[in-house]
């Protein structure tokens, strides 16, 4: 089976940096996704990691270590619109974590 | 269509009734997925289709839940004898291709619909 753990909530200040960690256990691995979900809306794709290392996309970066079963999503230069839930998901068996709610304060 | 379309957006029903939720995926997307999301939780996998066939239905909670995709495009999730615990947002997603879950080059990037909120009274 799959088990995905991520913190429930995080709070940060506008302009700051926040790192959302995700640890997982899985019987198979094809890749790891990060999705963003604003309240009352559908999840939208942010990033995808297959190989170890850092993938950078503008203000958002995602890191993967397959040997450690660990990923993080790094949000830089936080904006108020970044307040949302961030979901870690495994490509294998299409499993999602419970999500981390990030609140950005002025 | 331009995006994944789900109808109805909201459905209120009484316990014991039958419900159908419809999903119209992005044109050309061969893989279609159903998830269920409760408040404060991540999406819970129910079933996915590759073409017309259900490639993995291991997430369906019990035999009251059934889904079809007869022509490989539109899909319907059917819930019989609804219970209060079935209340949730039902999300549909589609992706361009699914190589048995191999996730080639991000090919399993899911595009979600806005969801159907089901409330069972």
Q: Helices and strands in order, then pairings?
A:
The complex is a heterodimer of chains A (106) and B (121).
Chain A: E1 2-5, E2 9-13, E3 18-26, E4 32-37, E5 44-49, E6 53-57, E7 60-65, E8 70-75, E9 84-90, E10 95-96, E11 100-105
Parallel strand pairs in A: 2-11
Antiparallel strand pairs in A: 1-3, 3-8, 4-5, 4-9, 6-7, 7-8, 9-10, 9-11
Chain B: E1 5-7, E2 10-13, E3 19-24, E4 31-37, E5 44-50, E6 53-56, E7 65-68, E8 75-79, E9 88-95, E10 111-112, E11 116-120
Parallel strand pairs in B: 2-11
Antiparallel strand pairs in B: 1-3, 3-8, 4-5, 4-9, 5-6, 7-8, 9-10, 9-11
Structural features, described:
The complex is a heterodimer of chains A (106) and B (121). Chain A is mostly beta strands. Chain A is 0% helix and 58% strand. Chain A contains no helices and eleven strands. In chain A, the strands form two sheets. In chain A, strands 2, 4, 5, 9, 10 and 11 form a six-stranded mixed beta sheet that branches. In chain A, strands 1-3-8-7-6 form a five-stranded antiparallel beta sheet, with no helix packed on it. Chain A is globular, with a radius of gyration of 13 Å. Chain A starts with a strand and ends with a strand. With 121 residues, chain B is mostly beta strands. Helix content of chain B is 0%, strand content 45%. Chain B has no helices and eleven strands. Chain B has strands at residues 5-7, 10-13, 19-24, 31-37, 44-50, 53-56, 65-68, 75-79, 88-95, 111-112, 116-120. In chain B, strands 2, 4, 5, 6, 9, 10 and 11 form a seven-stranded mixed beta sheet that branches. Chain B has a four-stranded antiparallel beta sheet with strand order 1-3-8-7, with no helix packed on it. In chain B, a hairpin with a 2-residue loop joins strand 5 and strand 6 (53-56). The chains are: A mainly beta (106), B mainly beta (121). The A-B interface holds A 4, 28, 30-31, 33, 35, 41-45, 48, 50, 87, 89, 91-99 and B 33, 35, 40-45, 48, 56, 91, 101-103, 106, 108-115.
């Amino acid at each position: 089976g799959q088990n995905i753990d991520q913190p429930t909530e995080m709070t940060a200040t506008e302009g700051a940096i926040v790192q959302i960690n995700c640890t997982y256990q899985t019987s198979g691995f094809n890749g790891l996704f990060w999705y963003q979900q604003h309240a009352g809306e559908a999840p939208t794709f942010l990033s995808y990691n297959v190989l170890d290392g850092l993938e950078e996309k503008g203000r958002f970066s995602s890191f993967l270590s397959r040997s450690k079963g660990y990923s993080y999503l790094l949000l830089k230069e936080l904006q108020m619109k970044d307040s949302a839930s961030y979901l870690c998901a495994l490509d294998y068996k299409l499993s999602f974590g419970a999500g981390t709610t990030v609140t950005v304060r002025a | 269509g331009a995006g994944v379309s789900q109808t109805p957006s909201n459905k209120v029903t009484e316990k014991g009734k039958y419900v159908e939720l419809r999903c119209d995926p992005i044109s050309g997307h061969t893989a279609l997925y159903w998830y269920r999301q409760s408040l404060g939780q991540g999406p819970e996998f129910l079933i996915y289709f590759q073409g017309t066939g259900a490639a993995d239905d291991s997430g369906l909670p019990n035999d009251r839940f059934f889904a079809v995709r007869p022509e490989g495009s539109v899909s319907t999730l059917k819930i019989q004898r609804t219970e209060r615990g079935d209340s949730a947002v039902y999300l549909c997603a589609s992706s361009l291709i699914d190589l048995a879950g191999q996730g080639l080059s991000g090919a399993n990037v899911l595009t979600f619909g806005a969801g159907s909120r089901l409330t069972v009274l």
